[in-house]
Amino acid sequence: MHIYGGFIHMSAYLKPMLKHALVTALALSLVLTFVSPLLAAGMSVDVTTAKSNETGTGSVLGGEPTRLTWEALVGDGEQVTAVHVVLPEGSTITDESSVKVTVLDGTTRLNPQNTAIMNKDDATVDVSFAEPLTSGLRLRLEMYKVSLPNVNGEVVLTGTYALANGQMLDFAPSPSIEVTHASAAEKLSNWLGEQPAVQAWNSVTFLRLFFQPELIVSSIPVVAVGWLISLGLVLVGFPLAIPIGLIAAFMKIARARILHILAAIYTGVVRGTPLFLQIYIAFFGLPLLGIDINQYVLAIIVLAVNSGAYLCEIFRAGIQSVPKGQFEASRSLGMTGPQTMFYVIIPQTIRRVIPTMTSEFILLYKDTSLLAAVGVMELMLYSRSIVSLTGNMTPYIVAACFYLIVTLPLIRVVGSLEKRLALADSGGAAPKKKARKNRRGAFSQMCEEIADSTDDARDELQEQTRLEAGLTGAPSSKDMEQAIDELQEEVTHDAQLDSTEERGGAR
């Protein structure tokens, strides 16, 4: 009985709690019945893209016109009457901007009556439909000549949509768009592309494929990075090749046969095989042996070893071109063999081989283009990447100009050095200057002799006329001047004949 009473007491306590729980569950079920379709099947944005507006790359430049594509799928149970798309802050819509509205039912294109408005003030797009879009339909907006903010980073399009019952809902999070800050060169490139003269130029197939103006401008900053890398590789590799070549040259002219053989093997193998093959062996063979070296460091090593073999022969020929009397004279002065080599022979050798070394530097600089085959980011690979994106040969022309920036001045320097050394070796420069000086001295001496002879003749003539004046009277001043002029001409003519005969006898 006691147990039964306790049970009745507990039931009385639990009855209000159960009643409250049932009311709460009923309320939640009603809420979920009406709200869950809206939460679970809202209009979702699954496509937001921007067309690349940078010539030569696939990037989307901020602050430059592009084409935006926005797609959304109508959720289950929804009837969409309007959409309001908000572009990222800093975007720009101009009078030239336009929007194209497309509605798809699977793969079938529908043409519902709609009104599309682009608002320049707040950079928004409003689209309303005469008939609501039902669930499962896909809405696509293509916005032309719209500029995204000029920033580096990701931007997102937001907005709202209206249902047939007047309810306004926010779009679900949409995919982001990667935007790149537009540089001055990129803006100039886009501006050139809009000019009528440039468009007329590009209408010619050959000019467009090889000399497209806007692609030239946009390619220069990109290709310049590769040019600096190529120049850096050769500026580091060539100085390393000089001691390699000099040591190999000493080994080749050394009396020790083993040194001569080692140097001959080194120069023979390196000069006898293409640099392209050596690059492949180094970049693909060493990793197989477990040797992992940075690609730029490995590129410098390959270039230095290759150029050192050619410099070896250049130095050897330069050393052997110095007369043997130089060695004997140095030894007679008490200098040792190393002292003779480093203080007498090598300075003369360097002077003789500078033109050839400059030519080797030019060849090595151009050979850096072979590194593109193994993925080293240098001048050619940078230009090739742009060509692969655009299908245009213009970046290769830009790369050629960067090569010529270095090679043409050096070629002129080499030519000038070769002429000067040739004149100095043949003694052509100094004798020419000396002969000119001698000619000036002979002419001055001839003029002095003519002047002295004229003065003596004038004095003699005046003395003779004074003697005659005592007998026949003084001559007139006119007669005196005429006689002096005739005598001066006669003396000048005789002096010139004497000088001509002297030069003929000298020859």
Tell me about this structure.
The chain is of the alpha+beta class. It has three domains: 44-179, Sandwich (Immunoglobulin-like), CATH 2.60.40.2430; 216-426, Orthogonal Bundle (MetI-like fold); 429-466 and 483-506. 63% of the residues lie in helices and 16% in strands. It contains 14 helices and twelve strands. It has helices at residues 2-40, 184-193, 196-202, 205-210, 213-253, 257-272, 275-288, 295-321, 324-332, 337-367, 379-390, 394-426, 429-472, 477-506; strands spanning 44-50, 65-73, 79-86, 92-105, 108-110, 114-119, 124-134, 138-147, 153-155, 158-163, 168-170, 177-179. The strands form three sheets. It has a five-stranded antiparallel sheet, with no helix packed on it. The protein is elongated. The model is unreliable at 1-10, 31-40, 429-437, 468-477 and 499-507 (pLDDT under 50).
